[in-house]
Amino acid sequence: MIRKTIAALILVPLAVFIVALAIANRHPVTLSLDPLAPDQPALAVTQPLFLILLLAVLAGVIVGGVASWLRQGRWRRAARRTEAEARALRAENETLKQRLDAGEHVPSSRAVTLATRRPLDRDAAAAPGGRDKSRPPM
Questions:
Q1: What SS3 state is found at 31?
Q2: Taking residues 6-10, what's their average pLDDT?
């Protein structure tokens, strides 16, 4: 509910601004892409100013998104690698559980002693300051 309200508080004024910009800048403007011959450009486009501005903003958003996506490639790769490792460890864990349930001897170097594992001691998990940060303060 809060997310929708915040989105509405941002998007409604933005939409009003874009409509006002479009109404105020309906006049055609010639955009010349030929710096050598400004009086007779080889490549020129005549469009309303608001359309040119909106296309420039859209191009900036796309370029920024692509740049951000490319910079985050290292983190996506690490996440995929970690997920694959977790999947392999879960499969190994299930295999070892099945072997323990069947009474088969599991070598101690790879044994997961699920039956003899003690429950987590909450005081041992406390932060160095003595406060358990996973619990809210009293």
A1: strand
A2: 92
Q: Which of 74, 57, 75 is nearest to 65 (CA)?
A: 57
Please state, as a whole number, how many other Cβ atoms lie within 10 Å of the Cβ of residue 2: 6
Q: Which two tokens stand for residue 54?
A: 């909106």
CA 15 vs CA 22, 95, 114: distances in Å? 11, 57, 58
Question: Within 10 Å of residue 73's Cβ, how many Cβ atoms?
Answer: 9
What the block records as the tokens of 32 is 């010349």
Residue environment code for 98-113, b if the CB has 16+ CB neighbours within 10 A, otherwise e: eebeeeeeeeeeeeee
pLDDT digits (tens, 9 = 90+) for 14-60: 999 989 988 998 899 988 888 888 788 888 889 999 899 899 999 99
